[in-house]
Amino acid sequence: MAASIYEQFGVKPGINARGNQTLLGGSTPPPEVQEAMDEATNGGFVLFEDLLLKTGEFIADTLGTEKAFVTSGAAAAIALNSAAALAGDDREKMGRLPDTTGMKNEFLFQKAQDYGYKRCFTISGAKIVEVGDENGCTVDQMEAGIGPNTVAIAYYESGRWGDNVVSLDQARELADKHNLTLVVDAAGQIYPLERFTHVAQTGDLVAFGAKYFGSPHSTGISTGRAKFVNSAFQQNFLGFEMSGQKGLARPFGRGFKTDRGEVIGVAVALRRWFTMNHEERLAIEDAKRDAFARALADVPGVEARPDTQPLIGPNVVVHIHVDPEVTGKNGTQVMRELEDGDPTIWTRSHDGGKSIALGVQVLSDEEVATVCDRLKEILTAG
Question: What domains are defined for the chain?
Answer without folding.
Answer: 7-25+277-380 (3.90.1150.180), 45-275 (3.40.640.10)
